Structure formats: structure tokens, C-alpha cells
Amino acid sequence: MNLPPPTLAPWLDGTAPPDVLVVAGERSGDEHAARLIRELRARRPELRVAALGGPALQGAGAHLLYDLTAHAVVGLVEVLKNYGFFKELFAQTLAWIDKYQPRAVLLVDYPGFNLRLAKALFQRGRSRRAGGPLRVLYYISPQIWAWKSGRRFTMARHLDALAVIFPFEPACFADTKLPVEFVGHPFAAADHRLTVRYDVNGPVLMLPGSRVAAVSRIFPLMLAAFSRYRQSRPQARAVTLVSGPGVRAELEQELAKRPDLAPHITLRTAEEGAAGRVVLTSSGTMSLSCALAGIPGAIVYRANPITYLVGRAVVSVPYLGIANLLLGRDAWPEFIQGDAKPVALARRLMECEA
């Protein structure tokens, strides 16, 4: 997927500079940041917020400069393919900050871009760490406990403060002077509504993710597994949640190749949600939602082969799924890369119903 050249919108004409610029490149980060901005604006309605994010931040009252979530990519190979896009986006973001002078920058997850942005602001003397006026804050830490743990020292050098969402994360920064606060996971908030729920009589859930490139590798595999599953469960139906027009187009394209399965699969938006009795889910945020909802099943993931080989060399944790990491066991078996085969996934679905 080659991304089109980015163009950032200007700040609102004739108004004071923004109080906060939010940078959230993933759909989950967009949603988590939107919750934060809504809470801040409830306390301070006059707060002026600009964002490189997505529809959730826009709905929370931020002035959307660019829908970054519509162009999310993951993996070394995918990023290199779109190097020109990210280089231009980076340059435009720095230029925008120089021109409109926000009081603070809130970086949300998205470490490949955001940590470089924090470093650049430091090197330009713009951030408070470098003696400048701009507060550089980070929400939802990179997973330094999984890989590249040395990033904590550069984060401590360039950031003013960090808010983390897992209780074990502050200890990961104990040997730095970076102020780190555990603020809780957004999914644990009292008013959070999971997009999925368990229903013993519900359909199979197939949740291939929110990035088009990943969906293009994972969804055909899920379809093949569902086809095998239906050989012994011919009445079975499935639901797939859609996150964005790009993902919908990819799902519809794959379903068009499987006229035997398409009538038995329903596409629903993430806002509509879905209930199911068993699930095949990608390893991202949705896998944690499924765990919290108590839906049995499996985690499925296939990356670009080069990305996968690089990842194996640097990742130091035994699981991809957050729930499995927190529990310290594979409560949701993980079928990764070559282990992700339709016959194995179909067998896992049937085991969950035994």
C-alpha cells in the first residue's frame, strides 16, 4: 500500500494558538486520546486542541489536521515502502509546530514516529527539556518491556512526563529521572463499553484488525479456517467488525473471492459491536477486548516475512497478546506466521465449543 502525500490543515484562522497538539497514528490511540480530550474539555471547555489523529479525536472536539489513522501501516517493510510519506509528514509536523506554537504536544503510542518527533523537538531547543517553551508529554508507553528497553533513557532525555496504562510499567523506568504515572487502562474505565461480548448462542467472531496491510494477510486465513469449521458446523455464521473504509474495501474484496462463505458472514462497524461464542482475533487491541469479554478462541497473526524475522530477533516476550502477557500463560493460544494454518485454527474453534 503506497500512501498519498500528506497535507496538514492549518490551525483555525483568527484564534489564539492551540493549547495542545495530539499525535495519535493508530485507531486505538485515536480512541484512547479522544477519551482523554473529552475529559479535559469537560473540565476546561475553552481548551484548544489540534490533532493528527482520526475521527474519534475529531468527535471529541479536536481540530483534525490530518486523518493519520486512515493511513496506518505496521512493520519494517511497510514503513520502508512508504518512507517518503513519513519523511514528508514528519517535516510538515515540525513546520506546523514552529508556525502555530502549541503550548504542549501530547504523543500517543505510535513510537516509530512520536519518539523521533520528541527527539527533534529537543534538538531544535523547542521542548522544555532543552530549555524551550513546549511541554512534550507521552501517553501509552512504547512496550519497552518487550523490546528495545534502552529507549527508556532517550525517552527520559526528551520527554517531560509519561502516563502508562499497565501497573508494571513505572518500574521499567525506575532507573531514569522521567516522571512516570500509572493512569490505568482505558478499557478498565467505569464507562468503557467493550465492542464485543460473549454469547453462548452467538456466531463466530473473526477480527482481523484495523490496518489494511495486516487485514489482507490475516482475513483470507480466517476465511479458510471458517470454511473448514463449517464442514462440521454447516449452520455456523460469522461476524467481522469493520474499522474504516479501507478495511471494509479489503474485507469485501476477499469475501467476493469466497461466494461459498460470503452469505454466512456479516460485516458490522466497531461502533455497532458484536456478540460471539468463539473468536479468531488479531494480536492487537481487539484481542484484549475479547479477553475482557471472556470470549474463548485464538490469536492469529501473519506479518511480512522480513518484518517477522526482524521481530523475532528483537522481541523478548513469550506472547504477542496482552492478556497472555498479563496472565503469564497462553489462555488464548497464539497462531503466528507459519503456525497460522486453517486446519489448526478450525480445530481450535471446535475445541472451544467442546
Description:
This protein has about 350 residues and is of the alpha/beta class. It contains 13 helices and 15 strands. The chain has a seven-stranded parallel β-sheet with strand order 3-2-1-4-5-6-7, sandwiched between helices. Strand 1, helix 1 and strand 2 form a beta-alpha-beta unit. The longest helix is centred in the middle third of the chain and has 21 residues. The radius of gyration is 21 Å and the shape is globular. The mean pLDDT is about 90.
Task: Jot down its keywords.
354 residues; 13 helices; six-stranded parallel beta sheet; alpha/beta; 18% strand
Count of individual helical segments = 13
Q: What is the strand tally?
A: 15
Q: N-to-C terminal Cα separation, in Å? A: 41 Å
Could you state the order of secondary-structure elements as H and E? Answer: EHEHEHHEHEHEHEEEHEHEEEHEHHEH
Please state the structural category. Answer: alpha/beta
Shape: globular
On the 0-100 scale, what is the average pLDDT?
Answer: 89
Taking the sheet with the most strands, its summary is: 7 strands, parallel
Query: Which value, in Å, is the CA radius of gyration?
Result: 21 Å
The main sheet orders its strands as 3-2-1-4-5-6-7
- Uncertain runs are none
Helix content: 25-40%
Tell me the strand percentage band: 15-25%
